[in-house]
Design brief:
The protein is an alpha+beta fold. The chain has one helix and five strands.
Length: 166
């Protein structure tokens, strides 16, 4: 009579196969989790850019037209990602963004680009409605905010708003 084999346990091959499947599953799960966090971080940075842009637009609306540089000039400001002001400089240049170099890593750059009223391209349905294009009392200001979503490079995010100040 032949002895009966006990097939109730797992072989080494089966254990190694189960470990490999578990490791692959864990790796895929970790990749999905990290990808989701990176995407969320990019969205958070975009919200910070919009907040900085809004704050600068509010400041511009409250400023006197005499406090705004002459056309052809720009105010360049830098902030960190906690929206702490770092520095400000005045530069001359031509559109767009006065030709200012791109911001560094972990920096938010805000540019107030001032254009003369004559550069305003506006048409109205009524001929009696006109902008004072040849007046020093009207300035067109493009405010740009730009930076990198993860703070260390990648695709540049840039938002812009145009305001008229008189």
């Amino acid at each position: 009579m032949k002895p009966q084999l006990n097939n109730l346990g797992m072989t080494l091959i089966e254990v190694l196969g189960a470990v490999a499947i578990s490791l692959i599953s864990l790796t895929v799960l970790m990749q999905l989790t990290l990808s989701n966090r990176t995407h969320k971080s990019g969205i958070d940075r975009s919200i910070v850019f919009k907040e900085v842009l809004t704050n600068n637009a509010i400041e511009l609306k409250g400023a006197s037209v005499d406090d705004i540089p002459l056309p052809g000039n720009c105010i360049v400001r830098t902030y960190d990602f906690q929206i702490n002001f770092k520095d400000q400089s005045n530069v001359s240049g031509s559109p767009p963004a006065c030709g200012v170099a791109l911001p560094g890593n972990n920096t938010i750059q805000v540019i107030w680009e001032v254009e003369p009223a004559a550069s305003i391209q506006a048409d109205f349905s009524s001929s009696s409605l006109k902008l004072p294009k040849y007046s020093n009392s009207l300035k067109k200001v493009n405010i740009y905010v730009r930076g990198y979503p993860n703070g260390t490079g990648g695709q540049l995010i840039q938002n812009q708003v145009t305001l008229f100040k008189r």
